[in-house]
Amino acid sequence: MQILDRLDALIDADDCRAAIEEARALLLQFEQGPDALTHAIDDFLLDLMTLSFIVECYGRGFELLARTLARRRLAKVRLLSGGVDTVRQKRHPKPEG
């Protein structure tokens, strides 16, 4: 599953705190991009944390708008990243022989 698709699925996760940690780990895989992408990623994480706070404090009845906002922020990340996962290529030496 692509990173952006997995992030989208995390917006609906039951365990919001675990979703935030997984989202952070996934977002670290993006290459260093333009400032606009970095800010969009930060905004997405902030909205995911806000969603967690709302669910924790007010229950499941009030999270719809926060989920919608998080999805819009993720759409901005998707747009600024070119709509594809621009992941760092980790070099592993190939065995000789």
Task: Describe it.
The protein has 97 residues and is mainly α. It contains four helices and no strands. The protein has helices at residues 3-10, 16-27, 35-58, 64-80. α1 runs antiparallel to α2 (16-27), α2 packs antiparallel against α3 and α3 (35-58) packs antiparallel against α4. Residues 86-97 have low confidence and may be disordered.
Chain-wise SSE layout:
Blueprint lengths: L2 H8 L5 H12 L7 H24 L5 H17 L17
Concise synopsis of the structure shown:
The protein has 97 residues and is an all-alpha fold. It has four helices and no strands.
Query: Mind describing the biggest β-sheet?
Result: none
Low-confidence parts: 86-97
Number of helices: 4
Q: What is Rg?
A: 15 Å
Question: What's the shape?
Answer: elongated
Given helix and strand content, the structural type is mainly alpha
Distance N to C terminus: 32 Å
Strand residue percentage: under 5%
Number of E-type strands: 0
What is the helix/strand order? HHHH
Helix content: 55-70%
Overall average pLDDT: 83
